[in-house]
Amino acid sequence: MIGTANRRSDELGQVTADLVVLTVLDEEYEAVLGCLAAPGLLLGSEGAPNTYAWQLGAIDSPRYGATFRVVVGVGTPTTPYGALAALEAIRRFDPRYIAFVGVAGGLDRDGQRHGDVAVSSAVVAYEYGKVDTGGFAPRGDFTYRCDGGLVRAAKAVANARWWREGEDPRPPRVRTGLIASGDKLIDDPREAFFAAVGKMWPKLLAVEMEGAGVAAAVHEAQSQGHLAGFVLVRGISDMPHTKAAGEVASTGERDHWKPTAARTTMKWHWCQAQISPSRVIFCPV
User: Fold this and answer.
1) Into how many domains does the chain fold?
2) pLDDT in tens, 67-111
3) Alpha-carbon distance 250 to 262, whole Å?
4) Cβ distance 88 to 81 under 8 Å?
5) Which residues lie closer than 8 Å to 56 by C-beta, 6 or more apart?
């Protein structure tokens, strides 16, 4: 074990961050690391093991003449594990902001398609509810609003020219709205269970599997005095739809689009960051 006098600046327990980015999939983790300056694995110890593959990198902000410290980690699918990763991040790094980024299933809203970006104005834990002879009745008790400054920044940047000419004949679009989060991979949004969710929240943009846990952890941390703001950013990797008889599941579609959706999310989210003490604004190059 490293003695106190020999502690290093890249050792867990010695690092704080302006921003923590949480991911789950390899494609998501690599996409984030590819947008940071000089990322490097943080050094664990017996008392502080690096169980989330935490890496420390930086974002340069020319406008503010500053470099901001960003920690990236990779966790495990499902909302409970999302909460555990977020609590660990808050405890270890005391960040000003936490962003959960990656891919999600997109719902049919305003022409949304593969490769588009959905940014949460709020996250709903859709699986909380009651099941009886009438089926599933979801309850909205666990709906978490995201950081208002981040959401307004997302809306402002969504209409900016953030995609370089020639990269795609139809540039991906960015939308802000409600994202559903639960422990089920949704292939068919009209299946009875999730149809009840769609009826409860008819304007859902996307559905994913970790955000509600992260949002709950941030909400709990805020009640204890931590200042971390939260936003969920998802690239659309598949469009859940009703399958015809004999039609295969969306696994192949999802796997095909995962790398593109992850890269699209990061191109928008990280092209250039301008960070002030009160909010983060993500801007195009």
Assistant:
1) 1
2) 889 999 999 999 999 999 999 999 999 998 899 998 999 998 888
3) 17
4) no
5) 10, 15, 17, 39, 40, 42, 69, 70, 71
CATH number assigned to the domain comprising residue 137: 3.40.50.1580
Q: Within 10 A of 75 (CB to CB), how many other CB atoms are there?
A: 24
- Per-residue pLDDT reduced to its tens digit, 226-271: 878 899 999 898 888 776 666 666 667 767 666 666 666 655 444 4
- Residue 104 carries which side chain, given as an amino acid letter? A
* Total-model pTM: 0.86
> Of the candidates 189, 192, 190, 219, which has an alpha carbon nearest to the alpha carbon of residue 206?
189
The sign one gets for the Cα dihedral 150, 271, 11, 6 is: negative
Q: Using DSSP bridges, classify how beta strands 19-23 and 97-106 pair: parallel, antiparallel or unpaired.
A: parallel
Nearest Cα neighbor of 257 from 241, 233, 238 is: 238
Query: For a pLDDT cut of 70, what percent of the chain falls above it?
Result: 78
Say how far apart CA 181 and CA 226 lie, in whole Å: 23
Contact present, 99 and 116 (Cβ < 8 Å): no
Amino acid at position 252, single letter: G
Whole domain around residue 62: which residue ranges? 4-283
Q: What is the pLDDT of residue 145?
A: 95
Q: How far apart are CA 207 and CA 229, in angstroms?
A: 21
The token pair that represents 253 in the structure block: 């579609």
* DSSP code string of 156-208: HHHTS--S-TTS-SS---EEEEEEEE-SS--S-TTSHHHHHHHHHSTT--EEE
- What phi, psi does 96 have (nearest 5°)? -80, -30
Residue whose tokens read 């891919």: 103
Does residue 16 sit in helix, strand or coil?
coil
